[in-house]
Amino acid sequence: MKYNNYQCDLADEQAMQQFGQKLIQAIIKMPVTPNGIILHLNGDLGAGKTTLSRAMIQALGYQGNVKSPTYTLVEEYAIGEKRIYHFDLYRLADPEELEFMGIRDYFSPQSICLLEWAEKGKGFLPEQSLTINIDFAPQGRHIYLQANTLLGEQIICQFVEDQAK
After folding, report:
1. Superkingdom, according to UniProt (predicted)?
2. Could you tell me if 36 and 113 are in contact, meaning their C-beta atoms sit under 8 angstroms apart?
């Protein structure tokens, strides 16, 4: 079965963490691609983008503190053969700044790039595999996954398949 989107409601922070753990398990089953796996995390301030990112990184076995890269723009996590790059472009003044920081070097076959506020880097970022929209809901958060590539569809299919188990 083919899926190009998926949506659900999450009641609280614990549900967001569980969602992130399950999503990253689907992601790591994907084949290697030249630019790695690129996820755009969209949502208002406080919606849960960093909470979701933290849950994904910790689910891969990272034991240290996972902090928001609001001031550093990017935090790197080496986990086994994978490199997880957590970006927060909220404070980016001009997308051209990404060229100066060597943005292209982050997109490699072994990378998983989690980009918060990715729209601020428009024109300087490769196509994302998956867009994750997080919206406030009357009870918790509403999550909407949108595949932007075949790889994104494969991630959603794997996620849905894993949920059914």
Report:
1. Bacteria
2. yes
Distance from CA of residue 24 to its chain's centroid?
9
Cα–Cα distance for residue pair 141/96, rounded to 1 Å: 33
Residues 127-154 pLDDT 10s = 999 999 999 999 999 999 999 999 999 9
For residue 106, count CB atoms less than 10 angstroms from its CB and return exposed for 0-12, middle for 13-18, buried for 19 or more: buried
pTM exceeding the 0.85 threshold for the entire prediction? yes
- Starting at the edge strand found earlier in the chain, the sheet holding 82-88 runs 5-10, 141-147, 130-136, 37-42, 111-116, 82-88, 74-79
Nearest-angstrom CA–CA distance, 128 and 38:
5
- The per-residue pLDDT for 64 is 86
